[in-house]
Write a structure and sequence with these properties.
Blueprint lengths: L1 H15 L17 H5 L2 E7 L4 H7 L9 E7 L2 H9 L5 E4 L3 H7 L4 E9 L5 E4 L15 E4 L4 H12 L8 E4 L2 H10 L4 E4 L3 H9 L2 E5 L7 E7 H5 L1 H23 L1 H12 L3 H10 L2 E4 L3 H16 L26
Parallel strand pairs: 1-2, 1-3, 6-7, 6-8
Antiparallel strand pairs: 3-10, 4-10, 4-11, 5-8, 5-9
Helix pairs in contact: 1-10, 3-10, 3-11, 4-5, 8-12, 10-11, 11-12
Length: 332
């Protein structure tokens, strides 16, 4: 019954929306019924073992979505948004930087939901026994990272604060699994990465953390949808229900960290000793999309463009909508 009430409430909000409050989209101009939404198949991009499917399952909400979901796993946010730009994915969760790279590259995507983090997720780590004890000592060294990922922005800000630029180091663009292998084999001097990889290499390989995300980067992560999905009334209504349900799952995780850690560990194949730390570090709170968030993302655009890491200095406000803000808090 609660799930039905949630869906009904969010669908009512979808029907009441209009193009005037949706950042220029027209998804709310047509009344959408529960029957219409039930016919939808929402194509959701996920990050295997760490994302929405595992979270919704752990929170007991995976079977309460009133439409079909087709899950697709990706190694990180950038390839997910590339797939979204091609029309293969409707929505997916990413960090702060992937939407910037996607927008600069001309991908037709839009931030539709936001979560605030403690800023400590991403970290620069060095292998056990490394003589490197400061970011400044990374000058001239190879650093593994994911181009366009949240780790990319964290690394940029960490280097900048240490008086270095990306040209002072050798950036090695690797997806997490490949970067883990390069890091543990000594092929790179450092790695900028997010949970649970940070906790994994610290616990299992004796890695040292040089700098966490706190004081660097931005404190947000996002749900991003294709503009085509947002413009489709039925899919937009399904996205509203999905976001409200997902927000409810994040609230559950924050209040049940041990249970979430156990479920996340099972999905990721890592022990509780690692995942308990990762779950606490990675905790996020759903928040509305505000002008502060737009400004924060524009700051990423400006910094990436100044560093020569993106081709176009876009106005990020054209890739963010507050149309779905009514879903924040509707899951309580």
């Amino acid at each position: 019954m609660a799930a039905c009430l949630l869906a009904a409430g969010v669908l009512a909000a979808a029907c009441a929306s209009s193009a005037s409050d949706s950042g220029g989209t027209s998804a709310g101009t047509k009344a959408v019924s529960a029957a219409d939404v039930a016919k939808v198949t929402l194509h959701v991009g996920d990050q295997a073992g760490t994302g929405a499917e595992a979270l919704l399952t752990a929170a007991g909400l995976i079977n309460k979505l009133p439409f079909k979901v087709a899950w697709s796993d990706f190694t990180s946010g950038p390839p997910m948004l590339q797939a979204m730009g091609s029309g293969a994915i409707d929505i997916g969760g990413v960090g702060d930087a992937p939407p910037v790279f996607a927008a600069s590259g001309g991908e037709q995507v839009e931030i539709v939901g936001a979560r605030q983090t403690n800023g400590d997720q991403d970290a620069v780590v060095v292998p056990k026994g490394s003589p490197i004890t400061s970011i400044a000592q990374l000058k001239g060294q190879k650093i593994a990272y994911g181009s366009g990922s949240s780790g990319n922005y964290n690394l940029l800000t960490v280097l900048t604060k240490a008086g270095l630029t990306t040209k002072d180091v050798t950036l090695v663009n690797l997806q997490p699994a490949e970067a883990l292998a390069a890091f543990t084999s000594g092929a790179v001097a450092a790695w900028d990465i997010w949970p649970p990889y940070v906790q994994q290499v610290v616990a299992q390989d004796g890695a040292k953390v040089l700098a966490t995300g706190s004081g660097y980067g931005s404190p947000y992560s996002f749900e991003v949808a294709s503009k085509a999905a947002v413009a489709d009334p039925d899919k937009a209504a399904a996205i509203k229900v999905y976001l409200a349900t997902l927000d409810k799952a994040y609230v559950w995780a924050a209040t049940h960290p041990s249970a979430w850690a156990a479920a996340w560990g099972k999905a990721a194949g890592l022990p509780a000793s690692i995942m308990n730390v990762a779950a606490t570090t990675d905790a996020t709170t759903p928040v509305p999309v505000t002008s502060a968030i737009v400004s924060s993302e524009q700051n990423l655009v400006d910094q990436f463009f100044a560093a020569g890491l993106i081709p176009t200095k876009v106005d990020i406000s054209g890739y963010i909508t507050n149309e779905f803000n009514s879903t924040v808090g509707s899951s309580s």
